[in-house]
Design a protein that fits this description.
- This protein is an all-alpha fold.
- It has two domains: 16-196, Up-down Bundle (Growth Hormone, Chain: A), CATH 1.20.1250; 222-423, Growth Hormone, Chain: A (Up-down Bundle).
- It is 86% helix and 0% strand.
- The protein is built from 17 helices and no strands.
- It has helices spanning 3-14, 16-48, 51-78, 81-104, 110-138, 144-172, 175-195, 214-227, 229-250, 252-259, 264-288, 294-314, 320-348, 354-383, 385-405, 407-410, 412-436.
- The chain starts with a helix and ends with a helix.
Length: 437
Amino acid sequence: MTTENISKNLINSSWKAPFFTIWTGQAFSLLGSALVGFALIWWMTETTGSATVLATAAMFEFLPRVIMGPLAGTLVDRWNRRQVMLIADATTALATAVLIYLVWFGNLQIWQIYLVMAVRSTAGAFHLPSMLSSTSLMVPEEQLTRVQGLNQLLQGLINIAAPVLGALMIAVFPLHAVLAVDLGTAVLAILPLLFIVIPQPKADPTQVEAKASLWSDMRSGFRYVRDWAGLRNIVLLAVFINLISLPAITLMPLLVKNEFAGAAMEIATMQSSWAIGFLVGGILLSVWGGFRRKILTANLAMFGTAAGFLIVGLAHNVAFEMALSGIFIAGMMNVLLNGPAFALLQTVVAADMQGRVLALVISLANGMTPIGLMIAGPLAEKTGVSAMFIFASLMFIVSGVFTLINADIRNLEESGREIQSRQQTTAAAVHSSLSGD
């Protein structure tokens, strides 16, 4: 056995303790942040009763992540990723501490909440690509899909638990005490980062002398995606899928009210069915790990999502239980689509480009949400929400067929390995040349 193989085996056998120590701390931090979000939304609802205020707050929470994403991803690739995560977690905690101070002294104003939300959202724009790009350096490639399954499972649990815990805590404790929970969970996220080393991507010896500007680095991320046909098509597909699917999910309460004559309990049941499907998908993916070829798992999930959405659309005025089963399937398939897709990007994208590429994907996909809603809202008024689900189902079928017949997407993993192999060969040659000198 060669020294390289021994080193690889040691990494594969020792990755769990450091990674899951950091992952657990981050999981508690995400829960704390979700509690803060729920508490602030409830405070603004109770204090103002204004839909405009809530919509504005949502924009301050949403837009910084979209706008700052490409810049944040570029900086993540330039900076030490562990330090970026530390600063992002600390900034989020500091913003919460400011809120606690304002609440404690009775000076909290709506504009201050907007500002704090924007700061926290900006910190999140740096934190997410840092964590995702660090994961591929800490976790063996064959385990990436399982880890993504755990991430999806965690998100589903937080979406279910945070509103319940938040409501219970608000009923018992004052607002500043609820916000203080976020400070405690932030400490749990920060402490492991102080002691555990996160590997940094190796510098490309061919680029050591280059002193690229920030703008040049950002453009190189766009070029990296643009010039690689398979990667470009995957990114465009992710944007398209968000454009067609998120509006349908967002309009789900309207579907229940208008087309099933449901009330609050039926809306909650429908949302719970989606969340339970999400949890089941997360458990399945984390245990199973998907097919060896990650694109195959994601591809089958597209057709599965199409089936779930079609069931919801065809249940129009027929059977509410039928719609529940369809949305459960769609929720489960959402995990089986997103998890392998992110694992695929973590596998094929060069380590020193992952911050830029992942941030770009997240920003573009999230940016489609308001566009999709602007289109879907008036359209749903004319056709009904059921038609939106049927249309989304058809588009998922189109996406699935496109993925099957497009050779660039189908062979993305193989082309990624070829590119990385060529880069390693070039780097070795440059290193040898420099050593000879």
